[in-house]
Amino acid sequence: YEQQTLILLFPKIGILDFCKLSICSALKLTVPSHTIHGIAGQPLHLPVDYNFNATASEIQIIWLFERPQSNPKYLLGSVNQTVVPDLEYQHKFTLIPPNASLMISPLHISDEGNYIVKVNVRGNGTIAASQKIQVAVDVPVTKPIVHTEPSSGVVEYVGNITLKCTVGKGTRVVYQWMKNGKPLHDSPNYTFSSNNATLLIVPVAKEDIGNYSCLVSNPVSAMESEIIAPTIYYGPYGLRVKSDKGLNIGAVFTVDMGEVILFDCSADSNPPNTYSWSQRADNTTHVIKYGPHLEVVSDKVAQKTIDYMCRAFNNVTGKRDETHFTVVVTSVGLEKLAQKGKSLSSLAVITGISLFLILAMAFLFIWKRYQPHKGIPGADYRKAQTFSGNANERNMSISCKKLPSSDTKRKKERKESVFLT
């Protein structure tokens, strides 16, 4: 369609001229990319591929170099297998026909620009095609260094932090700030310089604490700086008191009398806080200890309820915080001990009684078993036989009746004699 349109517009131009303008499809010239990045000091290969559907007697390849604001300069060319270089560049550029690719070795910053390749094929006629490749030459970046200002640290909501990223070598350097391994983007307290090489944090806060690094890159390389963690002073935050014993409900700790309780006071702060403990008694408060820990011996406490206070102070930020709590001492522990003693005493009594009864029964059994047997006098007993039954059946029973003793007979005879007289 384009070819027919141009013929209508320019009827005096023949079909061969359109082929010279790369409109003819008989010759196809391709390059993988129209922009190629090379590394200074290294060789660079510019790949080119072409094909055509005609009989060729001659194939001509021409390479030209063009800088901005200048005319194209001839580098080298070939006809069939013969290469004709520009003598000025004969050791820098290499062409191996019929391959149209170009080798540049070594590559310098001055070699940056547009490279034009043209292929002419002569057969029944001459057809031509051309392509342009833009070559960018870069110097690899070196490892960047991050500087912090100020280096001594700042107080949150008071000071500012400036991070500067510098790199020794590299062209077309792109700067990217990282925090904890993730890219850092614009926010209300982050300000970046025009080239992103400087990061300003205004004002600093506790949330800005982290590991910062600077990632620099260009089309041929990338390097990341060492991790740097700015010093930010903050706190105290989240002051709280904990104990190793007792029951804690809100700000009230309930402990048993006789126990030794260790209280711990802590708060998030940089640098670490200084702590002081105060006790309130008789409407007055006095400091009883310094440090994060307080030991209370409940059996030495005169009152059942004691009010305490822990205070945290950051000597860099100048901020402080305090928390109040109450210790209630109960005698639950002693009552439990007494109940336990009573239960143990009752158990001991029951055990003693049971043991006594068992021993007594055992003694009685042994005594009965081994007691000697006494004989019964034959004169005190007599045997009587009683027979009962009928003719067909006889049952015999033997019964023993006690006979009166001789003493009884004498007493009876005496009574009779007296009666007779």
Automatic annotation (TrEMBL):
<keyword id="KW-0498">Mitosis</keyword>
<feature type="transmembrane region" description="Helical">
    <location>
        <begin position="344"/>
        <end position="367"/>
    </location>
</feature>
<dbReference type="GO" id="GO:0051301">
    <property type="term" value="P:cell division"/>
</dbReference>
<keyword id="KW-1133">Transmembrane helix</keyword>
<dbReference type="GO" id="GO:0005819">
    <property type="term" value="C:spindle"/>
</dbReference>
<keyword id="KW-0963">Cytoplasm</keyword>
<dbReference type="InterPro" id="IPR052280">
    <property type="entry name" value="HEPACAM_domain"/>
</dbReference>
<keyword id="KW-0325">Glycoprotein</keyword>
<dbReference type="GO" id="GO:0030496">
    <property type="term" value="C:midbody"/>
</dbReference>
<dbReference type="InterPro" id="IPR003598">
    <property type="entry name" value="Ig_sub2"/>
</dbReference>
<keyword id="KW-0472">Membrane</keyword>
<feature type="domain" description="Ig-like">
    <location>
        <begin position="144"/>
        <end position="228"/>
    </location>
</feature>
<dbReference type="InterPro" id="IPR036179">
    <property type="entry name" value="Ig-like_dom_sf"/>
</dbReference>
<keyword id="KW-0333">Golgi apparatus</keyword>
<keyword id="KW-0132">Cell division</keyword>
<keyword id="KW-0206">Cytoskeleton</keyword>
<keyword id="KW-0393">Immunoglobulin domain</keyword>
<comment type="function">
    <text>Required during prometaphase for centrosome maturation. Following poly-ADP-ribosylation (PARsylation) by TNKS, translocates from the Golgi apparatus to mitotic centrosomes and plays a key role in the formation of robust microtubules for prompt movement of chromosomes: anchors AKAP9/CG-NAP, a scaffold protein of the gamma-tubulin ring complex and promotes centrosome maturation.</text>
</comment>
<dbReference type="InterPro" id="IPR013783">
    <property type="entry name" value="Ig-like_fold"/>
</dbReference>
<keyword id="KW-0812">Transmembrane</keyword>
<feature type="region of interest" description="Disordered">
    <location>
        <begin position="398"/>
        <end position="421"/>
    </location>
</feature>
<keyword id="KW-0013">ADP-ribosylation</keyword>
<dbReference type="InterPro" id="IPR007110">
    <property type="entry name" value="Ig-like_dom"/>
</dbReference>
<keyword id="KW-1015">Disulfide bond</keyword>
<protein>
    <recommendedName>
        <fullName>HEPACAM family member 2</fullName>
    </recommendedName>
</protein>
<keyword id="KW-0131">Cell cycle</keyword>
<dbReference type="InterPro" id="IPR013106">
    <property type="entry name" value="Ig_V-set"/>
</dbReference>
<keyword id="KW-0677">Repeat</keyword>
<dbReference type="GO" id="GO:0000139">
    <property type="term" value="C:Golgi membrane"/>
</dbReference>
<dbReference type="Pfam" id="PF07686">
    <property type="entry name" value="V-set"/>
</dbReference>
<dbReference type="GO" id="GO:0005813">
    <property type="term" value="C:centrosome"/>
</dbReference>
<keyword id="KW-0732">Signal</keyword>
<feature type="domain" description="Ig-like">
    <location>
        <begin position="230"/>
        <end position="326"/>
    </location>
</feature>
<dbReference type="InterPro" id="IPR003599">
    <property type="entry name" value="Ig_sub"/>
</dbReference>
<dbReference type="Pfam" id="PF13927">
    <property type="entry name" value="Ig_3"/>
</dbReference>
<dbReference type="GO" id="GO:0007098">
    <property type="term" value="P:centrosome cycle"/>
</dbReference>
<feature type="compositionally biased region" description="Basic and acidic residues">
    <location>
        <begin position="407"/>
        <end position="421"/>
    </location>
</feature>
